[in-house]
Amino acid sequence: MIKDGKIMIGKAGEKEICLIPSQLNRHGLIAGASGTGKTVTLKVIAESLSELGVPTLIADIKGDLSGMIVTGDADGIAGRLESMGITDYEVRKYPVHFFDVYQNYGHPVRVKMQDMGPMLLSRIMGLTETQEGVLNIIFRAAEDMDLDIIDLKDLQAMCTYVGEHAKDYTLQYGNVTKQSIGAIQRRLLQLEEQGGDLFFGMPSLNIDDWLGTEGGLGIMNMLECEVLFQHPLLYSTFLLWMLNELYNRLPEVGDCDKPKMVFFFDEAHLLFDDAPKQLMDKIEQTVKLIRSKGVGVFFCTQSPSDIPNSVLAQLSNRIQHSLRAYTPAEIKTVKQAAESFRQNPDLNTIETITNMKTGTALVSVLDEEGAPTMVEKTKILPPRSSMAIAPEEVVRRYIENDSIYGKYEKSFDPDSAYEAMDGIRRQEEEDRAIMEEQKKQAKLDEQRAKEEARAQARKEKQEKEWSDRLARKAKNRLENEALSIGIRSAKKFLQGLLK
To answer: Alpha-carbon distance 231 to 264, whole Å?
Structure first.
């Protein structure tokens, strides 16, 4: 409910408890045990943001938020409004874009794998530093070959190709081992089994479609997560890509009158359970930095302890519904949750947390100066839209009449790394055959040259031998002639003596 430019979420007695729009990029937490009213609180805040013209993205884990497209039941909430002394409260419905990675209950959500990039993929898949280096080489190889990596099979094909040519790439870029290639392929297989073959592809989602308004109301982008949340690796992939994409796309705005967009991630513990350190570091970094782009993030979970302290410290607007405390661990969690608020001397926070009724919460938000307010026990307003799940056929008709219907419904698979690989291998086979033929011809030419050289040598040897023989004959003839002349001369001389 918008009142005096603020988002009124409930009342503490006669005191109105409001969120300040300019402080929503300091992020928030909605926590509480199952059935204590977290979803209603989420709906009230998201509806008010829509009325401010602020688009939202809501991860609908339980599938119970589709009632946003249906006008609420005025009679059903009349009693609660009366108990809060509120009379000017009209029910209504809100514009929603439904999205579903698995393409069953909303517009398909796809992204090109190369847009996500090797660094983000490495963090999502929990790769080691060495394996991340190999993944960088794989993407670089695709770039050098002028190949697009659109979907999973493109990256799988490039992994195989680089593995087959590991020696060449090792010499050019650094060490590429079969072990690293195998580890990457195994993680890609896990992504594929969780639905990555649907998530990575074309047409890629245009974030601008999430930043719009209809009739002055901010669009609620509802992500169907009943199936997606069962696959935490893909859920993390989607979340980080989306936040990273927004961070890269949006300009720096610093503090502004209202956020550019607000995200609500229900059952947030699913995001952090068993998350690798690299992923945790990336989430923490993104949550810290994205507020400068005017983007707010609300994590919704059963207990604040579900959120890592490094992320929890970034969540300044806190709404805590009732917690159960039956075990020592639960009692400790309640105490930690109570102590995280700015204390109110008129309120026993620890005792209140365990005794609140459904629809009541402890609330501490940032004031206009950015300081946390004292915690107040707050009765939360009812939503303006329906609290019931919209019938499936109503949702289906709504999707088919949506302004973006048809933009993402039909996928296409452009020529990319996978499709090009057969041609590349054929070309390489042809190149190898040509090289083998050239080597064979070169060997034959070398053999022929050697034979010609040997023949020339034999010829030269024969010619030399013949020349030597002729020279010896000539010498012998000269010698014989000289001897004959000498003999004749001696004979004449003797004959002259005898006369």
So the answer is: 18
